[in-house]
Every structure is written in C-alpha cells, then in structure tokens.
Specification:
461 residues, Nucleotidyltransferase, domain 5, 5-stranded mixed β-sheet, 4-stranded mixed β-sheet
Length: 461
C-alpha cells in the first residue's frame, strides 16, 4: 500500500484509517455488496451499533471482509466493551467471529479479558437478521466536574501514591508517597497504603464530603476488574479481596460518596477542567499506552477507551503485543515499547539488559545532544500519530488531543507533535483545522489529576 508520508523507520506501516477508507471505496464500487451491522452489548442492555457494508464474500473479497470485521470487533471490545456481539445480515462472517473470539480461537485473550474479567460472563456471539441487531443506547452516568465541598483526590501509580485535599476546587494539600504495589501478593498492603494516603489528606480538611480516585486498569462501578497495580494478587484472592477494595474503603469513611475511575479517563477529565480542553481525547505514552475521553460537557462516561489494544496498523506482519499476542495494536506505536522497537531500526544499539524505561532515558539523552538517529525515532512516532488521529476521530468526537507521558516529554515530544501536525494538515486538513493539540503544564502535572479525581463523586444532600 502506497502511503503518503510513511514513518521513516517503519515504511511498511498501514494506517487503519487508510485501509478502511480503501475498503469502503471498493465496497461502493462493487455490485453485490452486502449491508450488515455489528453491535457490542453490555449486561445492562446498553449497546453500540455500527452499520456497514462488505464485499461479495468470495476470493479476495472474503479475505478483506474477514480482516475488516475482525479488526472492527476488536476495536468495539476495547473502546466500548461488552459481553455480547450481535452480528446481523451475514451468517458466514458471524460464524467466523464466533470461532475467532471463542476461548480456543486466536482472539481468546480479548474475549476472556473484556467479557470474562471485565463483565464477569463469557462472550456470546449472536448471528441474526439485520433488523434484529440492537441499536445504540447508553445507561452510563457521567462522572466528574463536581468541586463543591471538602474532597480527597488520589491517583495510584506503580511507584507512588498521589493524594490531595481539595476545598471547593482549591488544593490545600498534596503529596506523593512511594510504594511498590506491582508484585505485592498481600491485599492488605493495598488497603493500608491507600488508607494511609487518605488519612494524610483528611488531616488538612475540616471534614470529608467525598473521595475520588484514579488508577491504571478497568473499573466498573468503582470496582477493579483488570489492573496492573494488582498483578501480584492471586486470581482467587483478587475476586474476594481486590474487587470489593474500594467499597470497603468507602465503608471505612462512613459511606461518603466514593468513585474510582481509570487514570486515562481522569486525565482527560483533568484536561477539560484545568486546561480548557473541549471534548479531549487523552493519550499518555508511557510504559504502555493509557487513554481516556471526556465528552463535550466535560464528563467521562463508562466506555473502556483502552487504545493500547485497538488496532492502528493493518499490515499482516505488524509488530505483536507481548500480552495479547495480536499485531498492530496501539501499545506498539505509542509507548516506551515503540521507542525500544525503533531504536534498532535507527541504528542505536541498546544493551539487552536495559528495561524499556532505561532505554527511553538513553534515547532521550541522545536526543539532547542532537543525535539524528534519536530524532528519527521521534519523527517516526509522530508519523504514526499523524496517520492515526483520523482513525481515532472516526470513533471519538474529540476536539482536543491531549498528549502526555514520558515518551512525549522534552524535545522529542516536540518533534512528535510537529510531525503529526504536518501530516494531519496535509492528509486531513478539515480535521487539522478543528483539532487542538494540548500539552500539560507544570500546574496540571502537580494538581490537575488530583482535582479531577476529587471531582468524580457527586455529593447528594
């Protein structure tokens, strides 16, 4: 596939948006194309429906149809999330999806993680008539933007706990406390650590009206379903001790309103509150790719928005994700893993014993002394971003793009944004004219996340 402005260190990159646009053009020009629909449905009945058309299902058309639907289903699982897939109007493609996303299929990880772990039920694929596919609906309650009263906001990271005391939107105390939760097998370690931070913050308030928090992972009704912070907890202990963790903390604080959300979502909320970003989509390029979205009203919703697992590169031999085993997903293009992968292509030899974080530090050092090989890495990531923004815009009505994380810090981050902006201006000028790039300032880094987290619960009289 000829690509305008290819990533210089990875010229084989096939942007998802470009692949899909060409597929849709083929469909429009092919007699016998078939209308169909796909819906992802949650246990509460809320759904996201996508209507589409596919090519006549034979030969090359069948292969392209299968590719298109497989990638679409994966995207719906990780952006919206649900436990049922309704596929209407094409029984053969429905069966392919059922096989591929079964517990023995090549997408078993996605089925087990999203349906099994997040929504606590096996993934069900329903083949049906086109008019039987559920329409889009939502039962979500918007979170965030509440600043009244005396609140505590916390953010749980892999190396520290950040916590702040907030009175009517004003931070009166904040601090970071080191901890090491990743491989801690004792759930009491987590409870006691969070409780310690809450008590420290409460000492600076006349009372506690509400508590809000953010952490990496997937949370449903403030309940952890998947979370890297708890990777050391055995599965059976996770279900009995970690899933009710925040309910127990709430009980310990006399049942005050208590909400916990994904850290990417809270970052997007913080951008809307502190930086004036309208409908921001946030992407944080760190150890992995964290992401979140706040709507035009400045609230976050209950969608998963896990762009680390969303396909952005449609070539068959794209880099594979070490966790899911799938190819072409966002984590390999917008994280420290991307930097490590591209270093070799740039001619930078990194010691094999270096972690991804240590490798990034070395690339940043080289960037700081003007090494052109390091700059090529950042230009390549910028090209990935420039070609992926239209793909994200297909699924999110964002008006601001918040870019943060260690990969985007320093002069390398400036190169990423410059390259992305140039490509977007040339390839999608309408989108470029209405999307605002937003980068956090020091005030945002210090207090924005804490204020946003504290604003999650609504205080009900």
């Amino acid at each position: 596939m000829d690509l305008p402005h290819p990533p210089e260190l990875d010229p084989g990159f096939v942007p998802a948006e470009l692949w899909v646009r060409r597929f849709e053009t083929s469909v429009a020009n092919s007699p016998g194309s078939t209308p169909m629909a796909v819906a992802i449905v949650r246990p509460d009945g809320s759904a996201r429906r996508i209507d589409l058309e596919v090519l006549p299902h034979s030969g090359d058309g069948a292969a392209r149809n299968s590719r298109h639907l497989d990638r679409l289903v994966k995207l719906l699982l990780w952006t919206r999330g649900g436990s049922e897939l309704w596929i209407g109007g094409h029984p053969r493609l429905a069966q392919e999806v059922a096989d591929r996303y079964s517990l023995t299929g090549e997408r078993a990880f996605d089925a087990e993680t999203v349906a099994g772990r997040v929504f606590q039920t096996p993934l069900r694929v329903v083949a049906c008539a086109l008019d039987e596919v559920p329409g889009s609906s939502s039962s979500s309650v918007a979170l965030g933007g509440h600043l009244d009263g005396c609140r505590i906001g916390f953010d749980l990271g892999g190396s520290d706990r950040k916590c702040a005391a907030v009175i009517d939107g004003r931070v009166v105390h904040s601090e970071e406390v080191p901890w090491s939760p990743y491989f801690e097998p004792d759930p009491r370690y987590h409870f006691d650590g969070i409780m310690d931070s809450l008590r420290r913050a409460a000492a600076h308030l006349p009372r506690v009206d509400a508590i809000g928090g953010s952490a990496a992972g997937i949370y449903i009704d403030s309940e952890p379903r998947v979370g890297s912070l708890f990777r050391g907890i055995p599965p059976t202990v996770f279900d009995t001790e970690i899933r009710p963790l925040f309910r127990r903390l709430r009980a310990a604080w006399n049942g005050v309103p208590f909400e916990v959300a994904n850290d990417g979502e809270v970052t997007a909320l913080a951008a809307a509150m502190s930086l004036g970003a309208t409908a921001p989509l946030g992407i944080a390029m760190g150890t992995s790719l964290a992401s979140g979205f706040a709507d035009a009203d400045g609230h976050i919703t209950d969608s998963l928005n896990e762009l680390a697992f969303v396909p952005v590169d449609y070539r068959e031999n794209a880099p594979s994700d070490e966790w899911s085993g799938d190819r072409g997903c966002g984590v390999q293009y917008f994280s420290q893993q991307a930097v490590m992968r591209l270093a070799g292509a740039a001619g930078i030899e990194l010691a094999p014993e270096l972690s991804a974080a240590e490798g990034l530090v070395e690339v940043q050092r080289l960037m700081g002394v003007g090494d052109p090989r390091a700059e090529a890495i950042y230009r390549t990531i910028g090209a990935y971003l420039g070609h992926s923004i239209p793909w994200f815009a297909r699924w999110y009505p964002f008006e601001s793009l918040l870019v943060l994380g260690r990969v985007s810090s320093g002069p390398g981050g400036e190169v990423i944004l410059d390259r992305a902006s140039r490509i977007l201006a040339e390839e999608s000028p309408d989108l470029w004219s209405r999307v605002r790039f937003v980068t956090p300032d020091e005030t945002f880094k210090r207090h924005g996340q804490a204020i946003a987290a504290a604003s999650l619960p609504r205080i009900t009289p």
